[in-house]
Design brief:
The structure holds 2 protein chains of 2 kinds. By secondary structure, chain A is mostly helical. Chain A contains 4 helices and no strands. Classes of the chains: A mainly alpha, B mainly alpha.
């Protein structure tokens, strides 16, 4: 496998990874496309180089390996379909919220900042004292 | 009999097409969907009986031999998984038909559901690595549609995360297949099992690690589990139930299949054990911190996956048998728990613990339907969870992995703790917040939203699954023996190779 193809695949994976880590979904979609093309290049180069594998084209021992090419065709079609779905998701998000950012999970943030209390385990009589959201800093009985 | 192998894949796809064609009549759609899945259960049972008696079945698509053709292989493990998967798909479809929600509002639900069924069956029955990729993609694409069904903002957001993470996993899978093909010249599992041991050590370990990462993302192993609790809870209950039951198990199945057939002993034992134990612990600790029924259950999926992989990590017959039995138990219990979560949400109007309360008096049937699977998940005898957990812990004791044993016991206790927390929050204590979030004074009587209880078509499938959990707990002997036979087959791939026409 030539060094050029290996470097191309590596470069596509690198750029794709950088893009996938972005906030905007449109960039992530481009990044995913680049990554999957990197994977496809790896798959093509896994087979032998040669002439086009068409019946009657040449001596069969000169043919390029057709199996990885068939696999790549399948993979391209699959990623095409899923990219279409992702684009529809991005468009829907834009319609609903005028933005296509990948949002942080609100529930995760709420749990991390401890806005939940285990009320159901505590005694019913102590429930009212759990709702403290002002802090008395200088102990003068006023928040 | 070999020709039956293609049916679990082809029949649901045909059903999906017919389902779209008869889309105008909901009744016809339901008949097609339920009919196909009933046929699938029947075929899977026949396959399992045949494979148990006579050994693995192999079917070559188009009559072309490996490595050019695609082979479908059913050994005991695959056939058992296909049977459990089709049964769960049928039960959850009945539940979805009964629920006033996703299935009624979307014409494409039944069709996409059947494509999911085809993908799951194909990934269990395939004998080819690239066909596994295609089958998993089929399953995932159907799941992308199901998880965003409804198009609300929160669903679109959760769907985005899920789709992007899954696509990254698929790209890595493709790269892994490329490396495997470049080093061995084939993607057929049986041929790979012969050629991979001839590769140099470093290459084998790298390939094994790459496939562990790829399927670990699918199975939600630590540290690749972060997407699961964010994505699963926003989907409608039957969708989450089928995802929780099946999708992660396809990942676990793929891990077990590749690590036993292709890379036995190539990964350091400590690595897999460490990953599995961390998954158990992190999952249950995450579950304790949550305040929403569905999120707690989603974190538990992560934790229980750890138990299954621990069974694989010790790489003994008892360990693998425990892992297989645990998979069967967990598929049933997790699906039931999410279906009950849907019942809770239907009855109480919310799935947050502080907005629910006192349901043991207003809906005692739902309380029973929740209580039994919850105790099974925690491992209380005489339910299925006890047998499953006990076999995993026994396998750990046999292999003298004391740290993992201690972690397994502690995680079991913490699982019981969080199940009790759900019970207290949902069924026992009165609600502390109104449905829109305003705090209620303590001592408020519990209220119900809509009709008390739930539609019969939602309760009956859940009840059937609960009965199955009790049955496996009390009469699980034959199932465990089947798991043991399947595990011996996994450890000794000679039978698999012989059926494929290759091998020594």
């Amino acid at each position: 496998m030539s060094i050029l193809l290996a470097a191309t695949a590596a470069g596509l994976f690198a750029i794709g990874t950088y893009l996938v880590l972005q906030r905007k979904l449109s960039r992530v979609i481009i990044g995913l496309g680049l990554m999957s093309h990197g994977g496809n290049i790896l798959l093509i180069t896994a087979g032998r180089r040669g002439r086009a594998p068409l019946i009657g084209g040449a001596d069969p021992s000169d043919f390029a390996d057709p199996l990885p090419q068939a696999l790549v065709l399948t993979a391209i079609v699959i990623s095409f379909g899923v990219t279409g779905l992702l684009l529809a998701l991005a468009y829907r998000s834009w319609l609903l919220s005028d933005d296509d950012e990948i949002a942080d999970d609100a529930e995760d943030i709420a749990v991390a900042t401890e806005e939940h209390h285990d009320d159901e385990i505590g005694d019913a009589a102590t429930l009212e004292t759990d709702a403290v959201d002002t802090i008395d800093v200088d102990e003068d009985a006023a928040p | 009999m070999n020709d039956l192998l293609a049916l679990p894949v082809v029949l649901p796809l045909l059903g999906a097409a017919v389902s779209i064609l008869v889309g105008r009549s909901r009744r016809a759609q339901r008949i097609v969907g339920v009919g196909v899945l009933v046929a699938l259960v029947g075929i899977s049972t026949m396959l399992l009986v045949e494979v148990d008696r006579h050994g693995p079945l192999v079917s070559r698509a188009g009559g072309w031999d490996a490595p050019l053709g695609i082979t479908l292989v059913a050994d005991r493990f695959s056939a058992l998984m296909t049977l459990i998967a089709s049964s769960m798909l049928l039960v959850v479809l009945l539940y979805a038909i009964g629920q006033p929600g996703a299935e009624r509002n979307h014409v494409g639900f039944q069709s996409v559901y059947l494509v999911l069924a085809a993908g799951v069956s194909a990934s269990f029955l395939t004998g080819d690595l690239f066909n596994l990729f295609v089958a998993i993609e089929m399953m995932l694409t159907a799941s992308y549609v199901l998880i965003t069904l409804g198009g609300r903002l929160e669903q679109v957001r959760a769907g985005m995360t899920y789709v992007v993470v899954s696509l990254i996993a698929s790209t890595l899978f493709l790269a892994g297949i490329a490396f495997v093909y470049a080093s061995t010249g084939t993607v057929n599992l049986a041929l790979l099992a012969e050629r991979i041991p001839e590769l140099p050590d470093g290459t084998r370990m790298a390939l094994a690690a790459l496939f562990l990462v790829v399927f670990g993302i699918k199975a939600a192993l630590f540290p690749l589990h972060f997407w699961l609790p964010d994505a699963y809870p926003t989907a409608p209950s039957p969708v989450t139930a089928i995802f929780a039951g099946l999708l992660t198990k396809v990942g676990v199945y793929a891990i077990i299949r590749t690590q036993t057939l292709l890379f036995p002993g190539d990964l350091p034992v400590g690595l897999l054990l460490a990953v599995a134990v961390s998954t158990m612990v992190i999952g249950v600790l995450g579950a304790i911190a949550q305040a929403d029924v569905k999120r707690i259950l989603s974190f538990h999926i992560v934790s229980q996956i750890g138990y299954m992989i621990v069974g694989l990590a010790v790489f003994t017959a008892t360990g693998l048998a425990a892992a297989i039995f645990y998979m069967v138990h967990h598929i049933i219990v997790k699906t039931t728990l999410f279906l009950t979560g849907g019942l809770i949400e239907h009855h109480g109007g919310s799935s947050r613990l502080d907005r629910l309360g006192g349901m043991v008096r207003t809906a005692p049937a739902i309380a029973v339907l929740f209580g039994i699977p919850a105790l099974a998940l925690a491992g209380i005898p005489p339910l299925s969870g006890f047998v499953a957990k006990f076999s995993v812990l026994a396998a750990l004791t046999d292999s003298r992995e004391w740290w993992a044993l201690a972690a397994g016991i502690v995680v079991g206790l913490l699982t019981l703790f969080s199940m009790v927390k759900i019970w207290l929050g949902t069924f026992w204590a009165p609600p502390t917040e109104d449905l829109d979030g305003t705090p209620l004074p303590p001592g408020t009587e519990p209220f119900t939203v809509g009709r008390p209880g739930a539609p019969l078509l939602m309760m009956i499938p859940t009840g059937v699954l609960v009965a199955a959990i009790v049955a496996i707990g009390l009469f699980g002997g034959p199932l465990y023996e089947l798991a043991e036979r399947a595990a011996t087959d996994l450890l000794d791939p000679g039978i698999y190779l012989l059926a494929n026409g290759t091998g020594p």
